[in-house]
């Protein structure tokens, strides 16, 4: 009987005929199985994994949306990096032994009630095990076998106890955790704060990312409660305002410098003049004000003329105020004509006498 006529007594196993059909459909190598690195065997109602031993260089295997009840027949796939088994009827993770290269395992929408059998995948980084039956915290104990795990999706598993968080400590490199749809997200006090504080590398929790600002707030909350968190929130607000002011001043200085390099005068651009507050702040940093002969204004950083310090423009109004000539003294000067006139008047009076 040829392999095209293979029959099984029970179920519908993966046959060589089915594999060849898939390879032809997806432009694979039918006569050289070792040359294939991808194999699509999904949506075929298979019940048993078989006949994959010749495909030793497979890197990705799609077995999702079948009727597979057990993981088996994969031990010869030493190069396998991605395995897709979602939407089957699998009850446990046994059968993954020897898959040292496996990095991504997707077993969503199955009937798994306990994480076991991952010791054969020491380099696993992504585990999608959502929509299963991981209801008890102890069902996560097997995560300790995959310390390189960075992405864990355990959405909609019926997890209720907050003790599940203790098992996450076994995977110190965890960066992405999806846990929505589990009752624990509602039952656990300060759920998000506590998970962020416990998992130092976590960057994404449920449906939102964890920014540096949020982690600062959480750290403050851990150290001093709500009051410390409130104080940190105000501190962050002030830091943002200060940064905005600094950015605005830097941008204005860049605009001034561009105008000067274009041979224009800052007097024609009043919108770029600094406020007194900004100039007093600048002068307090030890800057020297200088004026060029062609009516261009600069702030020179540093007192040494030999250094090539950055030149920043200074407000023309400020320059004019600092270099204004002193006001003349209010002294009445009598002209010579007036003096002679008054002298003449005096002489006439004397003669009359």
TrEMBL record:
Keywords: Cell projection, Cilium, Leucine-rich repeat, Repeat
Chain intervals with Polar residues compositional bias: 286-304
Top-level taxon in the UniProt lineage: Eukaryota
Tagged with keyword Oxidoreductase: no
Region named Disordered: 264-353
InterPro entries assigned to the protein according to its UniProt record, in alphabetical order: Cilia_flagella_integrity, Leu-rich_rpt, Leu-rich_rpt_4, LRR_dom_sf
One Pfam assignment: LRR_4
SMART domains: LRR_SD22 (SM00365)
Transmembrane stretches, start-end: none
Compositional bias annotation for Basic and acidic residues: 305-353
Protein location: Cell projection, Cilium
Keyword Transit peptide: no
Protein name as catalogued: Leucine Rich Repeat family protein
